[in-house]
Predict the 3D structure of the following.
Amino acid sequence: MTIQTALIILLVGLVVLLAVLLSARIRSERKHSAAIRRMNLAEFSEFLRTNSSDGSVQLVAGKVSDLLKQAFGCERIVFLRKRRRYLELNYFHGINRFNRRDFRALYNGPLTETLRDQVYPQPVATIAEHLPSLLREQLDRFDMDLCFPIVWRDHLYGIYFIRSTIETKAPSFQLLIASLAQSLSAAYHIKWHEDTSFRLREELRTTAAKDSDGPGENNNTPHGILKLVRHHDSETLVGRIMEAVQSDLKLERMAYVYESQRETEPLRLLKDGVHGRLTLPPQQAFREIVAALDTDSVAPVSKLTGAGHGTAAWSKQLTEAGLQYVISFPLTEKRSGVLAWQDGKSPEQVINRLKAYGVSAAELVENAESFEHVMALSFKDNLTGLANQRYFVKRLDEEIGRADRYDRSMALIIFDLDELKSINDTYGHQAGDAVITQMGQLLQGSIRSMDVVARYGGDEFCVIMPEADAATCLAFMNRLHDEIAERVFTIAKPPSEIHCTISQGAAVFPRHARSAEQLIYAADMALLRAKDAGRNHFFLYQ
């Protein structure tokens, strides 16, 4: 055989090998595309919109399992739910002939630390060292290759182990699985808050039964503060707690300075009955004051004069305001507070009652803060930081109700990017995400303070404009059209700069519609008209 013949055979072999690899890749992509197409996008969108507050854990978990099987090709599924100190088998699909006790793991800190950093599905090997040998054997036996946690902050609620028949490394697969995980995590976390509230309400009933005539000096948990268990706004809750404290301790004059929920925000002040003007101390002076006080002893205001640099001026203000005593009264372990007052009960009684209030107050405030955080995330779009569809629907109903009540007009604008598919096809889906993210940043700087901008889905955005008529709406669309046309959007890989255009449609309440559904329809029809006109246009509904 000649060298030329050998080279030809070698080339033919390489061509055949490449053809086989390409065919396998095409089959894999088709399989993945077919699986994604099987998913009803309207159903998935509705699931994400209603999951965390409108659906129970059982409902959300059931939908997650159905989507894993039907849309993501998961032929085998195992879900371990955390119960007290253990992770135990809660749901399975596609496996048989096993002992439930083998699917059990002791809950431990290292496992939580590892899972807390997992946003997307990861190989089971990433957590294998933290799992017992019997569980690892079962996972290997059923060839479970991926896992993802149901975790919210420091709360681990469970772990999914899955085996999928489609391309699991595709970005769309990983992003959608991450969305399912976050949705179920939110549902579990809200359930945890509901259980906490129920426990506190039961404590309220018990306390009320023991003390039908009102709070007593020896109650461990004051009756008045437990009535606040239903409040989920932390700042409102702090005000109500201090009202209960002032009433219980019979304080004629009081002032309470405390730290905000976020470190970047200024101190806050609550006061009642004080003389003259009382301002907040500087942050550094407040820290020095807190360091000079404790929760076990009452101090005269004069003690603050020498507490540190900058404290003398505030001590003088307290004296001029008619306040005599101070004590440290933190809201939570992370949020310090200082209570100043005049008259009322004896110092010993004040200390005892504040200690009784402190435990329940801290639990109520922490619960409200955490609830606020969950609800904020459930209303936020992860990619842009804008409001999501769920929040948009809620606010649109509210604004239409307000406009109708006060006989005002309001506008709704719906728009989308004209060539997002072309960007994705040319530069990749990460480039499309980068453009959408930058679009969100541009919108946040373009709207009025009263407007609401939301990402409706994909490349579609909505702007709710209270107090806006047709002229105001058209002026905004014209300005937004020009701003986006002039904006340069940057892409990291490959480094590129591109220009985008948008098509916009709008409708005005009550001129074009009398309900949220009708207003969305009218704005959507105007958007279709802009598309039909060749894109890069904006129209009001006709």
